[in-house]
Amino acid sequence: MQIQSYKHNGQLHRIWENSMVLKATETVVIGANDRTQVTESDGRTWITREPAICYFHAKYWFNIIGMLRNDGIHYYCNISSPFVYDDEALKYIDYDLDVKVYPDMTYDLLDEDEYEEHRKKMNYPVVLDRILHNNMDYLLRWVRQRKGPFAPDFIDGWYERYLTYR
Hints:
This protein is an alpha+beta fold. The two termini are 13 Å apart. It has helices at 112-121, 126-145, 154-165; strands spanning 3-6, 12-16, 20-24, 28-33, 37-40, 45-47, 52-57, 62-69, 72-80, 84-85, 90-101, 107-110. Residues 9-147 form the DUF402 domain.
């Protein structure tokens, strides 16, 4: 599958070319990729450096990428709209706020200034701002509780399945 992220104004933000679907239900999609091409909105391309397991949910306003590195699993979490999937790709709106989670489960909040800039520029409704911040809180609870993709063996288990199928 291809993964496409957009901005609130509908502008295409980024495309991941090839991810293998490992699980797909109405509410959850788990995908995997390794050294896949990524195309930025300005046409620039780059290749991911390590295997990654991607977790998307249709009810939560975030997605989670677990990257398998030599020193452990690093997570990159996007505060985003729930995903939609059509014949073309899995799609979501990226709302700039990000959380980087390290193998020891410490984390950094990223891009709060970019979020504020886009919130004003694209006139995010107050209710959307509230939804995004509530989901940020929910995501951080998942990190602290080792829930979902942060659970021990979640990423490794899905990576083993990916290796079996690829």
